[in-house]
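Section 5.1 Outputs to date
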Amino acid sequence: MIFEIPYPPTKRGKAAWNKRFGLNAYYAGKHWSQRKRDAEELHSLALWSMKKAHIRKQFVKGPVEVIFRWNDGLDVDNHAAMGKAFLDAMKGYILPDDNREWVRKVSHEFWENDSIQVEVRPYGRT
């Protein structure tokens, strides 16, 4: 199953997005209340994106791997906070939990489209 999460439509909007949600913001000591607001916003965006892609609220049948594909100018390792928030949003919608029983692998890659692609597939499938 694949869905896409939109970036802000402008270059300035994407720069603000990166500054707000990139891992560097968390290392800089972002206050817990702002982290909570960020997570809620990212959860809502992921849920909206899954619904827009016509992904039904139904749990996967076995362990999965999740592949995030990015194109926002950040280094690949700077997406950990966003990936975690998006994965957390999948809990209770398509994932029973995000523990090792259900999520065996998460990877971050680049791609050329102007959105975030999230692919959830059975673990071990190539």
